[in-house]
Design a protein that fits this description.
Blueprint (H helix, E strand, L loop, with lengths): L14 H4 L15 H8 L17 H4 L3 H15 L11 E6 L3 H8 L9 E7 L7 H10 L5 E6 L3 H10 L6 E5 L2 H7 L4 H15 L6 H17 L1
Parallel strand pairs: 1-2, 2-3, 3-4
Length: 228
């Protein structure tokens, strides 16, 4: 789920334009190389990225119809994706950037048929002020089946509060974004490029957290405890 279309792309841009857009000037760099990184990772997943509104809009149109939406995607894979037979919905990962955060968990709760298929949640600087409680409740309530990964930069306060309140929950990973690496690769607000920086990292570690994930989580928990 893309976030608010500010600075990096235009409010009218479709998802196809977003993931192929030049960063600021015509540099030739992809802002969000979602397809490219997924292909290069070799992971057997289908990328689903709907075009939403200029801000956190449009997810309600999927909302409680998520089951129907996913079933339509399966039909589309037969019609347009070269699948000879109707595929079944497998493991689901829900990911979002920035303003998509408040809606991601509503989307995750909007399925009946596939609620046990949701294995991971990826939030890229998504904990806007006031959303920490929803994230905590969802993460704790689904801790036996779903790992939640949250990278933060702009929304550190709410993210660290989540780290504090889930200190005993092994399935939640709150991690500070690697802003130094972002600065070397792209100019502009680090918040805008968190998805680009950490997307491949998450792809490479689907199913099992890396040592870097564990280290980042412990550092965030220590920072949250220090603030308290």
């Amino acid at each position: 789920m893309h976030g608010n279309k500010l600075r990096v792309v235009n409010a009218k841009d479709t998802i196809e334009e977003i993931w192929g857009k030049d960063a600021g000037e015509k540099t030739g760099k992809l802002v969000f190389p979602l397809r490219e990184d997924l292909n290069e990772s070799g992971k057997q997943f289908i990328l689903i990225a709907p075009t939403l509104g200029a801000q956190d809009q449009g997810i309600a149109e999927i909302g409680t119809n998520l089951d129907f939406y996913l079933e339509q995607v399966m039909l589309a894979l037969v019609a347009y994706g070269g699948f000879p037979d109707l595929p079944q919905v497998g493991d689901i990962i829900i990911a979002g950037h920035s303003g998509a955060g408040g809606r991601m968990l509503a989307l995750a709760s909007g399925t009946n048929s596939y609620k046990n298929n949701i294995k991971e949640i990826w939030g890229f600087d998504t904990l806007l002020k006031g959303t920490e409680g929803d994230w905590r409740s969802w993460a704790v309530g689904h801790s036996s089946q779903t790992k939640v990964y949250v990278y933060y930069w702009a929304y550190g306060d709410a993210s660290l509060l989540l780290a504090k309140d889930t200190a005993g929950v092994d399935s939640v990973y709150v991690m500070k974004a690697d802003s130094k690496a972002i600065a070397k690769a792209d100019s502009g607000e680090p918040h805008d490029f968190i998805l680009k920086r950490h997307w491949r990292e998450r792809l490479d570690n689907i199913g099992s957290p890396s040592q870097s994930d564990i280290k980042g989580r412990e550092e965030s928990r220590a920072e949250a405890k220090k603030r308290n």
